[in-house]
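Reading a protein record of the kind used here takes little practice once its layout is understood. The reader may check this reading against the record printed directly beneath this paragraph.
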Amino acid sequence: MNCIKCGKEIPDGELFCVECSLNLPTDRQAVSEAPRSAAPQRRMQKPVPVRRTAPQMVGPQVQAPRRTGLRTALVIVSLLLAASLGFLAWQYGNILVERNRLRTRAAALTAEENHVAALEEQIETVTKELEETEQMLAARNETIRELESQLSGSQSSQSQSEYDLTTAQSQLDQLTEENRQLLTMTEDLEKELEALEDERDTLENALQQAETYREKADFMDSYVVFVEDDGTGYYHTYSCRNFLRSKFWAYSRRLAESNGYTPCPVCGGKP
């Protein structure tokens, strides 16, 4: 159904137009307005003219004018009753229309009050959420300040760490150079150690040979004597200073003594 005033479409069951607030007639209003619309038509009806006939002079009948006046009175009374009923119907229709309009307004006001109450609840909820959000925002701002403080401390620590890292890198370079020098010295010492080990091996071999020679010398000094061709008849040890080592014979001590040679008075023929 469309509004008769603005032409907007109105859903079924609505009591007034949402666009222009025109009250819509209900079934009771339609019934009550029907007599109101019919009442003016009754008021506007012209009285039926009464045809008056001339009295006939027939005998003694004289009651015709009385009946005509009665009809006129009845018509007038009927018209007055119809007008009164139409007026009452019109008043009753206006009362019903006004009551329906007031009911519609009351329903609209109730709906608006409910809507306002819902809006107030929403506002209260949003206010609480806003307060909670502000508290969360304050807590986050505090957290941000703490993080900024920690960041400043971290930056200071980072600067100190960079300085320490530079110092450590310098020390590392120095230690690396010292390590390289130590490696060079180690290599030189290893070479020197190898040379010393070779020399030690040589000395050990020489000592072994010397020990062998010493054993041989001890054996020679203990059991072998030398007789020179000098006509003295003495036999000498190898270490005797009178042993000239020019021309001699080597004997065992017993063999020399058995051949008549005697010990040298200088060395005594003993080592």
